[in-house]
Structure to design on (314 residues):
């Protein structure tokens, strides 16, 4: 792997004609906002760019659907750009070996990035969207109001609306700059936080009623069984874990969502506990205060395995 700066990344992209973009599994607002802005920017500069996306967009990110639709075509391409993940196995594709071509990672997660050919990687950035913004500006791409909306969505989702530990001065400045370019904070908040369905609310009430505390309250666990959700749709539980994290005394918060294929685990921490290390150990990934895993086992087994692996130094 060669670690590169934005200049070299821009040059690599400029030299490529056909480019495939891919994000991580269970793509979040940062991943999708980054994919959107990158695709729109590359197309505006005359590139043949497409996005590999395994599933349709969740309701709250449908405002990005003019550029992002489910697409599992794997064209021959000059360059693959992998966004918002440090590992091949976290990519939104079942078998990463099917990706043919050199891969440039653009990412802000801790990790080695050693499986990639090139990495534009800075774990001091609040969001991958900040790296994409910088890269597009290096390439002299005009950031349109819709691209600004997408990048802004990336910043607010990864900083949890500018409250998480990773909120930097740079993130606030970039948000202001994106507003100058046409980003609409009110509209984006309405999409991202205001797309709950009655089924999501009922799932929330079920999940909250499952609260369990371990290790004298330092660990808080919420869970949601498959049968408590809409028959056809998995509930949007991404933010449920924040209720557990916000409990006084909680250091590690766990949200377990049983889906048709697996158990989705959302992890959050306070006081510096590194949930990304825990997630990596169990096959997932993320950041120190926020991480996730997909586990192929029952909800009870997932809970047991997690509790066995959450260890405090004191
Ligand atoms: Mn991110």
């Amino acid at each position: 792997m060669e670690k590169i700066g934005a200049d070299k990344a821009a040059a690599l992209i400029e030299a490529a004609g056909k480019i495939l973009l891919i994000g991580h599994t269970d793509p979040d607002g940062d991943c999708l906002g980054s994919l959107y802005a990158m695709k729109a920017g590359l197309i505006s500069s005359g590139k043949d760019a497409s996005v590999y996306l395994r599933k349709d967009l969740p309701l709250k990110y449908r405002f990005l659907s003019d550029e992002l639709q489910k697409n599992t075509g794997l064209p021959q391409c000059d360059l693959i750009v992998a966004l918002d993940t440090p590992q091949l196995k976290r990519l939104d594709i079942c078998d990463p070996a099917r990706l043919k071509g050199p891969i440039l990672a653009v990412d802000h997660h801790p990790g080695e990035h050693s499986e990639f050919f090139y990495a534009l990687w800075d774990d001091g950035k609040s969001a991958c969207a900040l790296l994409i913004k910088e890269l597009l500006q290096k390439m002299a791409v005009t950031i349109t109001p819709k691209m600004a909306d997408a990048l802004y969505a990336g910043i607010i989702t990864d900083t949890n609306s500018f409250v998480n530990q990773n909120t930097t001065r740079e993130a606030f400045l970039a948000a202001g700059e994106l507003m100058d370019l046409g980003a609409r904070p009110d509209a984006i908040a309405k999409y991202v936080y205001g797309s709950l369905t009655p089924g999501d609310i009922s799932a929330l009430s079920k999940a909250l009623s499952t609260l369990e505390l371990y290790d004298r309250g330092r660990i808080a666990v919420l869970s949601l069984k498959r049968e408590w959700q809409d028959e056809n749709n998995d509930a949007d539980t991404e933010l449920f874990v924040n209720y557990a994290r916000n409990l006084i005394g909680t250091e590690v918060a766990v949200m377990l969502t049983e889906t048709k294929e697996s158990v989705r685990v959302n992890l959050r921490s306070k006081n510096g506990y590194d949930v990304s290390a825990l997630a990596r150990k169990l096959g997932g990934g993320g950041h120190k205060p926020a991480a996730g895993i997909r586990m192929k086992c029952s909800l009870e087994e997932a809970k047991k395995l997690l509790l066995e692996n959450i260890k405090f130094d004191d």
